């Protein structure tokens, strides 16, 4: 078996995770990144139907969203 070294990590996830430290804090605190869908994103009530067989509708009232503006990757 070969030794493996982690020399860098980057992450951006729901729940305001934007660095390795915030990722590990999120895990250690057993937090949940799934939240109610905010009205400024979209009004889920316009598209929601509890019957999963209804075409053109969604069953989700909650979701996991990234926060903040993404930074462009360096070239």
From TrEMBL:
Transmembrane spans: none
UniProt organism field: Nocardia uniformis
GO molecular function, one term: acyltransferase activity
Protein origin, superkingdom: Bacteria
Protein name, per record: Beta-ketoacyl synthase-like N-terminal domain-containing protein
Matching InterPro entries: Ketoacyl_synth_N, Thiolase-like
Beta-ketoacyl synthase-like N-terminal domain location: 2-68
């Amino acid at each position: 078996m070969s030794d493996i070294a982690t020399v860098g990590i980057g992450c951006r996830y729901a729940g305001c995770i934007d660095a390795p430290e915030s990722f590990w804090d999120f895990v250690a605190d057993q937090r949940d990144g799934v939240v109610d869908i905010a009205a400024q994103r979209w009004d889920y009530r316009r598209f929601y139907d509890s019957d999963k067989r209804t075409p053109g509708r969604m069953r989700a009232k909650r979701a996991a969203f990234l926060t903040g503006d993404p930074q462009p990757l360096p070239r």
